[in-house]
Amino acid sequence: MAEDLRDQPRAATAPDGLSCESAVLSLCLRCRDGHEEDFGDLRGGARLAEAVLDAGIASCGLKVRGVHCLSQCKRPCVVAVSGPDRFTYVFGDLHPALDAAAVVALAQLYVARPDGFMARADRPKPMQAGVLGRVPPLGWRGGAVETVDLLLQSASETKP
Fold it and tell me: Residue 69, preceding bond cis, omega within 30 degrees?
């Protein structure tokens, strides 16, 4: 019986050349948008990936990878941008035929920002309402992160 290795940790440099030093656009290839029958069973995520490639993502200066699943099935189609010492963003509710240019514009903006931070108003329109998550980089000292002392918090909750 072959072991399923999809969720196993990988080395810092993957066989496809992606490294931990690069900004990366991840495209969910398995998203279903409900129109698969109209496209020979080609899933919405795969159609979005094809459209993003056709829209010129290769010129944006970041790595592009297809991902088996980004686990946002109720909000397809999904993309994420991430990189070391950068904010990570996840976006959903994208239209495979209409939003490819917006994904490319987002990638250009992300690469241009040293920390990857993108204010809502600066992002392309589909990425203003469709944000599913924004995670600050580890070690971030900016205003998006506050210290939480869980020991003091839990102790004060148990006092009468």
Answer: no
